[in-house]
Amino acid sequence: MPVTVLLVDDEPLVRAGLRAVLAAQPDIEVVGEAADGAAVIPLVRSLRPDVVAMDVRMPLLDGIEATRAVLRTVDGPPKILVVTTFEDDEYVYEALRAGADGFLLKRSRPEEIVHAVRLVAAGDSLLFPASVRQLAARYGTGRADTEPLAGARLTEREAEVLRLMARGLTNAEIAAGLVVGAETVKSHVSAVLAKLGARDRTQAVIAAYESGFVAPR
């Protein structure tokens, strides 16, 4: 089954460019487009895309509020990939805090766009971990209560896995580094998410940064 994608951007040329890049892949299908975040929820409900590639800045409803709305109101919501012009943007960080799974720069090369969609669809890795660290250092310091991690009671191995997740390592890379099986890592990741009450890896990593468990720099 192909990865299905909904494109949301108020610039027609951006949507056309993304569609051309993604539609050329045999394992990716663009199932719809929208020019504003206000149109996202009905399209998500009708099209059931795997991934929403969504501009962070739009005139009526921006990507932050659209992300919150999708995650709050849609059962089994899609993965959300924020599309942005500038990586050092508080809007991007707020979208990640709101529940977006990663972000993509509009200037990315075609192969990077395709890779980003596949990664987010698989739920395997945080995109641009170095950039997320910088965003956390600039916009996230001291913003979150430390309780989610203080009360999580992570085991020593789970804490180690969370630190490696924050570095942007995939499950396979974590398994290789720790010399354990991929299924073992998957179990540890699931346990970390459950204990932190995190929707996905991105949310767990942001909680780790904001609580001071992992230093952004």
Provide key terms for this protein.
five-stranded parallel β-sheet; Arc Repressor Mutant, subunit A; 217 residues; globular; 2 domains; alpha/beta; 5 strands
CATH topology grouping of the largest domain: Rossmann fold
Low-confidence stretches: none
Distance between the termini: 40 Å
Q: Which structural category do the helix and sheet elements fall into? A: alpha/beta
Please describe the biggest sheet, giving its number of strands, its sense, and whether it closes into a barrel: 5 strands, parallel
Percent of sequence in beta strands: 5-15%
Q: Care to count the β-strands?
A: 5
CATH architecture of the largest domain: 3-Layer(aba) Sandwich
InterPro entries: CheY-like_superfamily, NreC/VraR/RcsB-like_REC, Sig_transdc_resp-reg_C-effctor, Sig_transdc_resp-reg_receiver, Tscrpt_reg_LuxR_C, WalR-like
Domain HTH luxR-type: 147-212
GO molecular function: DNA binding
Domain Response regulatory: 4-121
How is this structure best summarized?
This protein has 217 residues and is an alpha/beta fold. It contains eleven helices and five strands.
Structure overview:
There is one protein chain. It is built from eleven helices and five strands; from the N terminus they run E-H-E-H-E-H-E-H-E-H-H-H-H-H-H-H. With 217 residues, the protein is an alpha/beta fold. The protein has two domains: 3-126, 3-Layer(aba) Sandwich (Rossmann fold), CATH 3.40.50.2300; 144-211, Winged helix-like DNA-binding domain superfamily/Winged helix DNA-binding domain (Arc Repressor Mutant, subunit A, Orthogonal Bundle). Strand 3 (51-55), helix 3 (63-73) and strand 4 (79-84) form a beta-alpha-beta unit. Helix 8 (156-166) packs across helix 10. The chain is globular and about 50 Å long.
